[in-house]
Amino acid sequence: MDARIVNALIAAVVNTLKTLLNITPAVGKPGLLKEIKPKYDMVTVIGFSGGVDGNLIYSFSPTTALKIVSKMMGLQYDTLDELAMSAIGELGNMIAGALAMNLEKVGCRIVISPPTVVTGKNLKLTVEGLAINLITSIFDTDDAEIILAAKNSIKCQQ
């Protein structure tokens, strides 16, 4: 596992949330996953390929998602409607874009796919390779989970 990739992800999460929401999140120590079962019901998946191939997976509780959307839109949101889901997808896109820029700085180029946002209980995602999770506190303790799943290993293949 290449620490530069994990550090690039942490920096992307912290800097994007700080800029967009004016909040400095607390990011826990990365943990290795045997299987991917997102902790929360709202999940955004963004694929990436290039120096590293895999997926970024973000999971939020509906309450956290509504708080994020309210901050992004500058008004109170109480329903996870189509616009709110789009905003959550765009947040994932911004973090993935920041990750791509951070990785470029260390010589590892990736291309990201558009986000997919899904909701549901007891979701299980199948990925090939290695996955790590970062439990993140945005508004409340451990209210978000970010998973980096990489085919083969978490290191740049370029």
Distance between the termini: 14 Å
* Quantity of strands, as a count: 8
CATH class: Alpha Beta
CATH topology (level 3) name: Chemotaxis protein chec
Helix/strand structural class: alpha+beta
- Unreliable sequence segments: none
Number of helices: 3
Could you tell me the strand content as a percent range?
A: 25-35%
Order of helices and strands: HEEEEHHEEEE
The CATH superfamily turns out to be CheC-like
The shape, in one word, is globular
Q: Main sheet?
A: 8 strands, antiparallel
Rounded to an integer, what's the Rg over CA atoms?
15 Å
* CATH architecture assignment: 3-Layer(aba) Sandwich
Q: Helix coverage percent of residues?
A: 25-40%
Overall tally of structural domains: 1
- pLDDT averaged over residues: 91
Task: Please provide a brief summary of the model.
The chain has 158 residues and is of the alpha+beta class. The protein has a single domain, classed as CheC-like (Chemotaxis protein chec). The chain is 35% helix and 27% strand.
Keywords:
eight-stranded antiparallel β-sheet, Chemotaxis protein chec, 3 helices, 158 residues, alpha+beta
List the helices and strands and how they pair.
Layout: H1 3-21, E1 26-27, E2 31-33, E3 42-50, E4 54-60, H2 62-73, H3 82-105, E5 110-112, E6 116-119, E7 130-137, E8 144-150
Antiparallel strand pairs: 1-7, 2-7, 3-4, 3-5, 3-6, 4-8, 7-8
Helix pairs in contact: 1-3
